[in-house]
Amino acid sequence: MQELRERILADGEVIGSQVLKVDSFLNHQIDPVFVMRMGQEIASRFAGEGVTRILTVEASGIAVAMAVGLALNAPLVFAKKSRASTQNDSVYTADVYSFTRKEAVHITVSARYLGKDDVVLIVDDFLAHGEAMNGLVNIVHQAGAKLAGAGIIIEKRFQGGGDSLRAQGVRIESLAAITSMEPGKICFAE
């Protein structure tokens, strides 16, 4: 998505060679009009797949996942990073390591909102090492649901998560794929 590439170049900040800060429009302050366009783009790539649920992890993926859900007319389910006292014992769980926060979290999804008859599209803001995505794929499998694939806003291909998931047969659609970056320079995949 050319508009996203331009926005990353204009507003993104590379920290070291591993971190891309896009908090001015995607995950701290959100540009809702732009997020809706990105959601519509992801939805168009999965149109016709029969998606019945959108799945993400709280919190930064929720805005884009909501936009995709709106475009596909599918409910959004998000994995909670800590089990809520209101959740019953019927949950799907996975352990996920966050390289951004440098901590492991135990994500949960209520079995009430994800089942064997669902076709699930995972949506997230970033795909880097693939930890969150692997956890979500695991939860889809626990539910016995069909995985349509994953819609990603920014994939950092040089960190290998996307390659690993593709090798497992997961369809990945990234709106912007970065092959390398350093302060002042971002290289995108064609």
UniProtKB/TrEMBL annotation:
GO terms for biological process: purine ribonucleoside salvage; xanthine metabolic process; XMP salvage. Its main location: cytoplasm. CDD domains: PRTases_typeI. It catalyses: XMP + diphosphate = xanthine + 5-phospho-alpha-D-ribose 1-diphosphate. It holds the Pfam family Pribosyltran. Pathway: Purine metabolism; XMP biosynthesis via salvage pathway; XMP from xanthine: step 1/1. Its EC number is 2.4.2.22. GO terms for cellular component: cytoplasm. Xanthine binds at residues 20, 27, 156. InterPro entries: PRTase-like, PRTase_dom, Pur/Pyrimidine_PRTase, Xanthine_PRibTrfase. It comes from the Bacteria. Belongs to the purine/pyrimidine phosphoribosyltransferase family. Xpt subfamily. Converts the preformed base xanthine, a product of nucleic acid breakdown, to xanthosine 5'-monophosphate (XMP), so it can be reused for RNA or DNA synthesis. Homodimer. This is Xanthine phosphoribosyltransferase. The lineage of its organism: Bacteria, Bacillati, Bacillota, Negativicutes, Acetonemataceae. The gene is xpt.
